[in-house]
Write a structure and sequence with these properties.
This protein has 158 residues and is an alpha+beta fold. The chain has 4 helices and 4 strands; from the N terminus they run E-H-E-E-E-H-H-H. A 4-stranded antiparallel sheet has the order 1-2-3-4. Helix 3 (112-137) runs antiparallel to helix 4. It is globular.
Length: 158
């Protein structure tokens, strides 16, 4: 069975196959433009899948491509600790996006100009969250999908 088990919605580019620059992914990994390509020479992003049944900050990541496991609390080398930090960054991004989406909405102002300005500000904030989630978790993570959906809904409603 080659299908990865675990939380597929929370998969991120493998920290072993695709090391981060600081806390951020490289652009070609972040956007995974060749994900649907049939070209055998196209750049392929390998995804690590978090294990289910653990708190978010304790989830280990397993990559079926390199067969490597990134541990949430690694011992040993600086490289392994840096890889483990990607789990912390994913957890922080998930928390921030969840809080943003759970509390999303503009105030109850009656002034039309004020409502338009509030909506513009909300979109700007959502765009910043989308950039943070994409650069930290990659384009296949649930945070990116939910933020894109929220932005599309706002755009269609206006």
């Amino acid at each position: 069975d080659k299908k990865p088990r675990g939380d597929l919605a929370s998969r991120i580019p493998c920290p072993i196959c695709h090391p981060r620059t600081g806390r951020f992914l490289d652009e070609d990994v972040m956007f995974d433009d060749d994900a649907d390509s049939d070209d055998p020479h196209a750049f392929k992003v390998c995804y690590a899948v978090p294990q289910n049944g653990m708190t978010a900050e304790e989830r280990n990541l397993y990559c079926p491509s390199c067969k490597g496991t990134t541990f949430a609390s690694p011992d040993g080398s600086i490289r392994k600790k840096k890889q483990g930090m990607s789990i912390k960054y994913m957890h922080v991004a998930e928390e921030k996006v969840y809080e943003r989406l759970a509390g999303n909405g503009t105030g109850g102002s009656d002034d039309k100009a004020s409502q338009d300005e509030d909506l513009h500000t909300e979109r700007d904030i959502d765009q910043q969250f989308l950039q943070m989630a994409t650069s930290t978790c990659g384009s296949q993570h649930w945070t990116v999908h939910f933020l894109n959906l929220s932005l599309m809904e706002e755009s269609l409603a206006s």
